């Protein structure tokens, strides 16, 4: 049996589940809704108290939703399983919000692209190569998963990348892949592949807008990604 304070151990008028069933979800505070996801507290602290600490730490629901599993787990009483439950709920909420908006997100900067794909790529332990297909207004058409490779090696052929772009009638695309090591610095093969794909895009009249490598945020790279266009590598790659 857990040493934590369970929701059913609280006074009846403080039980978030019972309050939601009786009064409706809108009547509950943010901390109570989060507590339902946490299910149980820890020794001496209820799920509501842990939820309140999370809100105080991250200052807003938006910041809490963007937090990594590691950041969430740092809060006492929030282990990996509870962090995963929170991340799952926030991701579903974000997807529903995009659905309700009825309009694809604008992905016209490296930061927006990186933020859009960061959570999905965080859990990969091998490199995954994706093509973000965009329309003429730089709004998302879809994300295509092209290939995956070894821990630090991946094979990409222009045919696979641009077949999807042509089928979707994309005006441009952004290449994205992750570095499981956490260091987003491009390798020589990353640069070589990018140059090949730039040339293929020029022939097909489909702009390669950027190649973004996702890693971890560090003191040396607070963004947690590397944009080849931002760093000037695209000028080197373009044919003369």
Which helices and strands, and how do they pair?
Blueprint: E1 4-6, H1 16-23, H2 30-38, E2 40-43, H3 47-58, H4 61-66, H5 69-73, H6 80-101, H7 110-122, E3 128-134, E4 140-148, H8 158-167, E5 172-178, H9 188-204, E6 207-214, E7 225-227, H10 233-237
Helix pairs in contact: 2-3
Structural description of this entry:
With 240 residues, this protein is an alpha+beta fold. The protein folds into two domains: 4-101, 5' to 3' exonuclease, C-terminal subdomain (DNA polymerase, domain 1, Orthogonal Bundle); 110-237, Cytidine Deaminase, domain 2. 45% of the residues lie in helices and 17% in strands. The protein has a five-stranded mixed β-sheet, sandwiched between helices. A two-stranded antiparallel ribbon has the order 1-2. Strand 5, helix 9 and strand 6 form a beta-alpha-beta unit. The longest helix has 22 residues, at 80-101.
């Amino acid at each position: 049996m857990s040493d934590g304070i369970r929701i059913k151990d609280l006074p009846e008028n403080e039980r978030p589940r019972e309050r939601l069933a009786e009064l409706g979800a809108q009547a509950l505070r943010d901390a109570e809704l989060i507590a339902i996801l946490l299910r149980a507290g820890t020794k001496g602290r209820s799920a509501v108290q842990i939820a309140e600490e999370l809100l105080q730490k991250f200052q807003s629901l938006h910041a809490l939703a963007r937090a990594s599993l590691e950041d969430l787990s740092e809060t006492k009483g929030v282990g990996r399983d509870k962090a995963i439950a929170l991340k799952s709920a926030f991701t579903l909420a974000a997807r529903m919000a995009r659905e309700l908006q009825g309009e694809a997100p604008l992905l016209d900067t490296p930061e927006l692209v990186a933020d859009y794909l960061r959570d999905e790529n965080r859990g990969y332990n091998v490199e995954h190569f994706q093509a973000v297909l965009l329309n003429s207004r730089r709004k998302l058409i879809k994300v295509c998963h092209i290939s995956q490779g070894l821990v630090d090696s991946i094979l990409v052929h222009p045919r696979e990348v641009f077949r999807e772009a042509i089928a979707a009638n994309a005006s441009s695309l952004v290449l994205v892949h992750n570095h499981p090591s956490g260091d987003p610095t491009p390798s020589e093969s990353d640069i070589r592949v990018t140059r090949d794909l730039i040339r293929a895009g020029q022939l097909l009249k489909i702009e390669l807008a950027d190649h973004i490598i996702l890693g971890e945020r560090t003191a040396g790279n607070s963004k947690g990604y590397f944009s080849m266009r931002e760093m000037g590598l695209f000028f080197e790659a373009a044919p003369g």
